[in-house]
Amino acid sequence: MNIPHPYLMFLGDVQDQLGAKTAQGIVDWRRDWCLGQIRLEGCKADLGIPDMTIAEAAGQGARTLVVGVVNAGGVLPEHWTSVIVQAIEAGMDVASGLHTRLESIPAIAEAAARHGRQLFNVRHSDQRFATGKGTKRSGRRLLTVGTDCSVGKKYTALALEKEMRARGMDADFRATGQTGVFISGRGVAIDAVVADFISGAVEWIAPAADPAHWDLIEGQGSLYHPSFAGVSLGLLHGAQPDAFVVCHEPTRSTMRGVQHPLPSIQEVIDLTIRCGQLTNPAIRPVGIAINTKAYGEDEARACLEAAAKAHGLPASDPIRFGVGEIIDRLTEEFATE
């Protein structure tokens, strides 16, 4: 997809910052593409960029309204339709990462047709995928996995790509969610792929490559999450990772959106190895990425030191402290293979 920017980020009336994580991810990694944000009354998220009306954004050259929110089921609330139609009438295209297809809303489809505007459904791919085969392929792959949803799997993979490239390594971020596709301009939203083809879609995203090349595959959900474990497992099998990094948010007691308790880092390591060995018997952990945003400096460092000591792996907050130690471990582990 070639989605025109600059963007006007639409947050609707989401009730917390995580509800706007698609928009936040785009702002964090593609700030220069983002002109401003538009929020409805009651919205509790803020991207830290200028608030604008549709008219103001159009006057400043916004080319696409991005519906930058996530919610259970990926639905488009009915009361958001009027804002989207206004944007189309003001000359903007519209891009959405929700499961609901924009053209399935008659008012949106009619406005787009009348004004000659494009509708981008980033979560949906027209690509046809084969079933996964699990056959060993050349190149190296790293998958980020999590103790829960929204714990930093995408940010960790992007941080790894940035640092590995800075070191002269051959590495590419591979997007498996709508936000990652917005950021990288390529990839597939795996949770919108028919279940039989999830592992095959990931094999397509990260195909055979040069032996020294690393694909850094964005993880989704958690093998322990009752809502999304099926997606996480198919992704693990298709990624066929040589290495994985466990991502964790230490202040949670239950997983997002459910009452199930958060699994431990060790439980995720053990289950990832056990399930991942189906397509790569040599799978191994190389680091732990912990989101320490809720902690002060000293508390954050103490948390990371404790995790590193408990698991015998480098632990870091990729955004706060970087991923250097994890990459050091990765290169050490695979230097002679």
Give the secondary structure arrangement, pairings included.
Layout: E1 7-12, H1 21-29, E2 34-39, H2 54-59, E3 64-67, H3 81-89, E4 93-96, H4 106-115, E5 119-121, E6 140-146, H5 153-166, E7 171-174, H6 178-184, H7 198-205, E8 214-217, H8 229-239, E9 243-248, H9 265-276, E10 284-290, H10 297-311, E11 315-316, H11 324-334
Parallel strand pairs: 1-2, 1-3, 3-4, 4-5, 6-8, 6-9, 7-8, 9-10, 10-11
Helix pairs in contact: 1-6, 3-4, 7-8
Report on the architecture of this protein.
It comes from Azospirillum baldaniorum. Keywords: Plasmid. The chain is of the alpha/beta class and about 325 residues long. It folds into 2 domains: about 5-120, NAD(P)-binding Rossmann-like Domain (Rossmann fold, 3-Layer(aba) Sandwich), CATH 3.40.50; about 140-335, P-loop containing nucleotide triphosphate hydrolases (Rossmann fold). Helix content is about 35%, strand content about 15%. The protein is built from 11 helices and 11 strands. The strands form 2 sheets. It has a 6-stranded parallel beta sheet, with helices on both faces. It has a 5-stranded parallel beta sheet with strand order 2-1-3-4-5, sandwiched between helices. Helix 10 links the parallel strand 10 and strand 11 (about 315). Helix 7 (about 200-205) packs across helix 8. The protein starts with 6 loop residues before the first strand and ends with a helix.
Identify the notable features of this structure and list them briefly:
337 residues, alpha/beta, Rossmann fold, 6-stranded parallel β-sheet, 5-stranded parallel β-sheet, 11 strands
